[in-house]
Structures are given as C-alpha cells and as structure tokens.
Amino acid sequence: MKKKSVIFFISLLFWTFLSFDPNFQQLVKFPDHYLISKEQIQLKGVWSKLVKVENDQIVTVSSAMSNYLGSEKLEVSYKLFGIFPLRSGEVEVMNPIKLIPGGQSIGVTLQTKGVMVVGQAPVVDESGKKMFPAKEAGIEVGDILLKINNLDVRTDQEVSNAIHMAGEQKGNASVIYKHNDQIVEKIIKPIFCVETGRYRMGLFVRDEAAGVGTLSFLDPISMQYGALGHVITDADTNQKIEVYNGKIIASTIYAIEKGKRGHPGEKIGSFVNNSTFTGTIEKNTLTGIFGSITGQIVNPYYKEAIPVGWESEVKVGPAKIYTVIQGEKIEEFEVNIDRVMHNRTDSKNMIVRVTDPRLLEATGGIIQGMSGSPIVQDGKIIGAVTHVFVNDSQRGYGVFIQNMLNETSQLVKNKAA
Asked: Are strands 36-37 and 84-94 parallel, antiparallel or unpaired?
C-alpha cells in the first residue's frame, strides 16, 4: 500500500511538471482554432525526441487574408515514438511575413464621402417663427448628405450654396442622403433666414476631420501601412466617417496632457510641413486606417522588418511598445500583456498595462494619440495599442496585428482586381 502511494505521488509530481512544460501544453491545446505559424507545429526539447510530428496538406485556403499573405491547411498529427497517436487535427498555417514596426507620430486628415450632419438648429423665417425643415423631413444627426437637386455635395460650402440656390430658383430641394446605411430621398422646402439673408434647412454639417495618431506598421514590399488600430469617428455624432479622401503625414509632439483617473490624457501636436513621408487613406475600419505610403519610414530600433506574431503566439507577459512623446523621436517602453481575448475580430483583443516608470511619469500610462503604437513581444510584432481605460490610464486595449493585416490584404486584393 505504501509503495502504491509513493508511485501515485511520483506520478502526480511528474504530471504537475508536465503541465508547466510549454511543449506539453501545446499538445494538450492542439489543434488551435486560429491561425498559427509553421514553427508552432514543431515541438522542442526532449519532446522532439519522443514525439514525431506528421503533416499533410489538405486544401489551399482561399480567404482574402490567405490569398495575400499565403497559407495552407494541414492535417497535423503527433505520435509518441512515431507509433502511438497523441493528438491530431486541422490547422491553417500562415507563411512567414515581416513588417517594419511603426511608432511615428502621424497627422491624419479625412474628407468624408458626402457631408455629415452634426447638429440641427432652427431657421427663423420672416414672421419670426422658428422652423426645422430638415428635421421635420426626417433628417437626423449622423446622416450623410450626398446630393441636393442632383448635385453632388462634398463640402459644407457646397451644401450651403445648393440649398440657397434651390430656395431661390425652385422653392423645394431634392435631398439624397444616407441614413443607417440606407439611401433615402426627401423633398424639403428651404426657409429664407432673416438672420443670414440666405435659404437654409436648419442643419449643422461637417465635411472633414483631423487629428494625431501613431503609425502601426509598414509592409516594405507593398508599401501598405496600418495605423491607429481603431476606427475614426466623428467627434459630435460618434459615427464612423466614410472616407472620400484623406492623407497622413508626419507630426511633431510638443506637449503631453497627462492622463488620470476619469480623464484620459492626450498628445498635443502639429503637422510637419516638410514631412519625410506621406500616405493615402483608403480605408477607415474597425481595426484602423489603411493605405499606401511614399517616402522614408524609419524606426531606429528596427533597421529591418521583423516577423509577425499571429494571434496564437500572443501570450500573457512582458512586451514593448514604440511611440513618440516628444518631438518626432520614437522611443521604446515596457508594457505587460495582462489578458489575451481570442476570437474577437474588433480592436479589443488584449489588455495592455504600462509598466515603464518613465512613460508612467511622462504620460500617466496610455493617452489619446498613442493609438496605433506597435506592440512587440519576443521579437515579433503582435499588435497595436487602441484604447485607454477611462478609470485606469495605466491600462488599455490592444488589437491583434493579424486583424489589421486582414484589412491590408483586402485592400491589396481590391487593387489587384
């Protein structure tokens, strides 16, 4: 009986030891349901001597991401001594890809597709009565004005002129606008405003947005970039901005408003007139802005591109971010990945905590304008900073680089088509 207890105790210690072995954990978790790299299939250490890994290609994967980045679906099996099956399953294995980490502070300007309604106000007519012609017709804050009397409108001045002209010449205006992703047409009667001497419909509109953010990565082959890590929304309506035209250039940071509990801090910067690079903005998505760059992109910490770390490689533990807190100088700071949230396709895939004393002293943690700062773990670019926790400026969210690359691959695919 005593002998059996000793054997049981030794077995328990052995399996406890195995539970902490990363290669054993790989066997237990396999197959993963997300993308993996080829090196993740192989075992290391003593396990590579005991377990044989076999894999066969099943079918070529035809997603937008795999078409651009290259991947294959494999049937992978692990066999003890090459005889006894341990685990097997299908995985999508990504071919290696390398990117240049960003960190540059960028100035962003966007011109919308159409003109966004950001507010409403009464029009005082000649009798002194307050009128709301657009509101009464059903136009709401967040709607996008596209055409007035068959004239495309792209600026607030074009909207103002088209409404005034319609009031003078026709008395009514045919307004085509976008509401909740639906195209709607309404006939509206502009009112002559005694205060301005012009015909108006009672709307405040905006045709562009501007701000400061951070470049996340550059593909040195295609010269496609990703930045911000989250969607750009209108400041008043919180609606996604549909891009008609836009660009990014270098910006310089001249002040920091330090973050504190309940009040996120921010970088205060200005655009650089003689920017060493310029970029187009072709997509504004949930995981950031994307387009092409011309000019010189330099990260002093990485003279060459580094490998991408896929979702399955991201782990809880230390990492580094790259961002600008003064001038145009990119600096390296220590952070910790506190939690990894798989299966999310948005920009909140991991919780990032700033641990670097120097960054905490300068900014209080994560601040506005830091969005897009690349995250590097174990020599691989794994994502970008996206949001700050309002009640804890030391922590925020990060997006998987994999989710950002999915948007880049679709952009390249669209260009090729």
From this structure: parallel
DSSP letter for each residue of 89-124 = EEEEEEPP-EEEE---EEEEEEEEEEEEEEEE--EE
Beta bridge partners of 185: 176
Residue-wise pLDDT tens digits, 288-309: 999 999 998 999 999 899 999 9
Which helix (H) or strand (E) segment holds residue 225: the answer is strand 224-227
Predicted pLDDT at 371: 95
Sequence spans of domains, the chain: 2-95, 100-108+208-416, 122-201
pTM of the model: 0.76
Architecture of domain 100-108+208-416: Beta Barrel (2.40)
- What number of other Cβ atoms are within 10 A of residue 416's Cβ? 8
What radius of gyration, in Å, describes the C-alpha atoms of the chain? 27
Give mean pLDDT, residues 262-279. 91
356: annotated active-site residue: yes
State yes or no: is 230 an active-site residue: yes
Closest CA to 204 of 140, 113, 118: 118
- 371, 373, 393, 409: the active-site residue: 371
In this structure, are residues 146 and 176 in contact, taking their beta carbons and an 8 Å threshold?
Answer: yes
> Could you give the CA distance from residue 54 to residue 30 in angstroms, rounded to a whole number?
14
Contacts of 281 (CB under 8 A, 6+ apart): 108, 110, 243, 245, 246, 247, 248, 289, 290, 291
Q: Which of 164, 356, 393, 409 is catalytic?
A: 356
Q: Please, what CATH class does the domain formed by 122-201 belong to?
A: mainly beta
Dist. CA 51–CA 45, nearest whole Å = 11
Query: Would residue 371 show up in a list of annotated catalytic residues for this protein?
Result: yes
Provide the pairing of β-strand 51-60 with 71-80.
antiparallel
Catalytic residue among 160, 164, 230, 387: 230
Going by C-alpha positions, the residue among 303, 314, 396 that lies closest to residue 351 is: 396
